[in-house]
Amino acid sequence: MSNTIVVGAQWGDEGKGKIVDYLTENTDVVVRAAGGNNAGHTVISGGTKYILHLIPSGILWKGKVCVIGNGVVMDPLGLLDEMAKLRSQGISITPENLLISETAHLVMPYHKVLDKAREIQRGDKKIGTTGRGIGPAYADKVERDGLRTILMTQPEILEEELRDRLARHNKFFADNSVELVPVEETVQKVLDAAKILAPHITNTTVYLHEAIKAGKNLLFEGAQGTYLDIDHGTYPFVTSSNTTAGGACTGSGVPPRMIDKVVAVGKAYTTRVGSGPFVTENEAIGDMLHNMGREFGATTGRARRCGWLDAVLVRYAVMLNGADELAITNLDGLDGLEEIQICTAYKLRGKIIHYPPSTSADLAACEPVYESHKGWKQDLSGITKFSDLPDLAKAYLKRLEELVGAPVSLLGVGPAREQTLVA
Ligand code: GDP
Ligand code: IMO
Ligand code: MG
């Protein structure tokens, strides 16, 4: 028995979906414990591209159980769309292979309206959210005004509570000249969704503990990344949940002492979508990757901001998450470069620092200290064995291991399942 947490070491989109898909082969249960359909995890298997938002990537494997844990905020209408899309791609989703926690919170249409309205209100200080209502849904949870998924098994109470929330929100929207949420249509849609989703809703904490007792292996599929964590990220340019390793425990009810391993996933360079400081941001790298058709968001289609690998961020992420191993993806993205930079430290007001500062203002004021590496100038996408990598690529990874304090265990040289090398 072994329980593993997979987390993102940067600002999300590190390739967690692909790594989770790879690790699922030796797993029984795949669990999402935080975030919502702000996530977009791309997996390419058997030549088909799948994009997962709320459903754990494990659903692509036959015979695996997927759990949406209590820490997730779940948009039932978004989930139905996602289920329909995956089914149209031949994936089987049943109440046996997709379990939803009774205590996960619902994202409702008024949360999306609030999300968008607050972004407009922030003006040039906007966060650049995905517009999926994530922040307002978590705010309602913490404010104790949320609706939990168990209500989907109690339609009469759900209707009453939903009408109450819609009335209150619409009053607030009317007072602030925001477009109202249509009441009857929303109630009907949510009640219809409840009927379909109710058979999936259960006490997933009990399920997970029983699975552990029965000797099953659990894999926690992180969403977002370390620097989008509400506590540890580049606040306020973060999401509204704990995306770091501890969130897997609070978001599932599986205690820390039952976790055996943490794998941090990072790209061989850095990307970020949305606003906020980005010390190693580099337009030329962004242009190169975008011209290759890469680095467009899986959820919103936005072009991702790109830059050099930032070992300061990954070092702190390794520490914070207690990462035993690193999975480095997209090494092939650097194939064409003569010279590759790694940021080894920051210079802040004349002082060299080795961990990111705690405020976004200070992070924005940091200058990168770079170390230059010679590029391997070779197409890595067809390589199937780690030992066949060019020496210069091996040297780049070795140096990364030294700088961040964790060994590379998995390496991505392309988006497909088979393009994952074991180090
Ligand atoms: P996630 O949110 O962490 O699951 O990552 P995303 O799926 O949003 O973004 C990662 C992108 O990189 C996707 O388009 C993946 O298909 C792609 N990807 C993952 N690993 C590799 C890799 O090793 N090489 C290449 N070329 N693409 C990769
Ligand atoms: P995956 O799981 C990258 C970013 C948004 C925005 C900020 C807040 O695919 O790695 P939110 O909608 O959560 O309130 O937006 O967080 N963000 C992500 N960026 N990958 C993600 O998920 C993200 N989920 C949220 O772009 O900057
Ligand atoms: Mg993503």
Care to describe what's here?
- 32% of the residues lie in helices and 21% in strands.
- It has 423 residues and is α/β, with parallel strands linked by helices.
- The strands form 5 sheets. A 10-stranded mixed β-sheet has the order 9-7-5-2-10-1-11-15-19-20, sandwiched between helices. Strands 14, 16, 17 and 18 form a 4-stranded mixed β-sheet that branches. Strands 3-4 form a two-stranded antiparallel ribbon.
- It is globular.
- The two termini are 22 Å apart.
- The mean pLDDT is 97.
- The structure holds guanosine-5'-diphosphate (GDP), 6-O-phosphoryl inosine monophosphate (IMO) and magnesium ion.
- Guanosine-5'-diphosphate is lined by residues 8, 12-18, 40-42, 44, 298, 329-330, 332-333, 412-415, 419.
